[in-house]
Amino acid sequence: MTTETREEASAMVTYELKHVCRQTGARAGVVHTPHGSFETPAFMPVGTQATVKGLAPEEIKATGAGIILSNTYHLWMRPGHDIIERAGGLHKFMNWDRAILTDSGGFQVFSFSDRRHITEEGVNFKSHIDGSRHTLTPELSMDIQHALGSDIIMAFDECTPYPADRAYVTESLERTTRWLERCVKRHDESPSGQKQSLFGIIQGGMYADLRQRSARDILQFDLPGYAIGGLSVGEPAELMYEMLEAVVPLMPANKPRYLMGVGSPDYLVEGAIRGIDMFDCVLPTRLGRNGTVMTSKGRMIIRNLQFADDFTPVDDKCDCYVCKNYTRSYIRHLIKANEMFGLRLTSYHNVYFLMHLMELIRQAIYEDRLASFRDEFFAEYGYEI
Fold it and tell me: Is 297 helix (H, G, I), strand (E, B) or coil?
């Protein structure tokens, strides 16, 4: 691919800075993609297997989502990226006409700690479906994501566990950089990849200097966006914030910054304060499927007996479809009766809650009061400040 062609391909996803909060330095902007633009900071609902669990694409749109995340590993295993490609790509396959980001599949493969083996070539592992043997390499991850046709594709990286010793983390981040070089080469060689934007992933475990080293290595590839991986993997919140503060200042101001796998309200607020633009997590639908809802006053286990006679909305400060139309008592009844509609309602509410939180964060940035908003929100939600 020529330099001109590569620059054109890289420009498929761009970041437009709109405002920097004078109180915190947090930023608001817009990410432009081939399937529309979305405001940042943004939360991406996770549609692991080409669906946000329990919810229709029209419902996800109604929450305000401009982008969702799907999973390369799961779609490779089932139904197969070749089938999705023949269907016209992931957008058509799942009837979603807004932006899609696909992860590389690396996190899922590395989570199979007892069923995988890491080599320089890639990762050998057993499928969670039938135990069959497979090898996922940087090149294959690119090929799968090219077939899926997502707007943003992620480089194949190694997500280091927590805790991990310094020697292992150093070896791991160096391998991630080598794998990124292979991803870039494969992406540049693919005609289908010219309409997709490849993001690199910064690793480095819980060592600030290794995080900074990884950032410098990854940023040399001059990609259209960058992610921070390997956080929110069991470490204390303060340590995660320390890693963000070490890395984010090194990241380009004119490109999206994506913190992978983060979705609790406190992390979203604190991440935005530290300059993050994009987040994703399965948390809202996972909590919903377990009968737990997020409210302005904290989490509520709505399937508990205390809500059997409670005819108030899930959250009287929420204007979502669920809170406008159904009561805590009714939703608890549905869940106890094993009616799937109950878990759809809790899932929808939770996704809407986080999308609305991101809207409030953006508003606070534009009004230069994000630190004040954090203190007020945390006090009501029940977090320690």
Answer: coil
Which residues neighbour 267 within 8 Å (Cβ) at sequence distance 6 or greater?
232, 237, 240, 279
On the 0-12 / 13-18 / 19+ scale of CB atoms within 10 A, 340 is: exposed
The DSSP 8-state label assigned to residue 249 in this structure reads G
Task: Please state whether the predicted TM-score (pTM) of the whole model is above 0.85.
Answer: yes
Residue 53, pLDDT score: 97
Cβ atoms of 203 and 217 closer than 8 Å: no
First to last CA, the chain: 50
Pick the catalytic residue from 188, 280, 310, 315. Answer: 280
Whether 368 sits among the annotated catalytic residues: the reply is no
Question: Which of 7-11, 238-242, 325-329 shows the lowest mean pLDDT across its residues?
Answer: 7-11
How many of the other CB atoms lie within 10 Å of CB of 6? 15
Angstrom CA distances, 47 to 63, 90, 221, 364, stand at 14, 11, 29, 28
| pLDDT digit string, tens, across residues 195-213 | 999 999 999 999 999 999 9
* Among 103, 151, 217, 315, the one annotated catalytic: 103
The DSSP secondary-structure symbol of 306 reads G
DSSP state, residue 273: H
- Closest C-alpha to 186, from 140, 239, 247: 140
Q: Which strands sit side by side in the sheet containing 14-20, from one edge to the other?
A: 14-20, 27-33, 36-40
Q: Are 353 and 315 in contact (CB under 8 A)?
A: yes
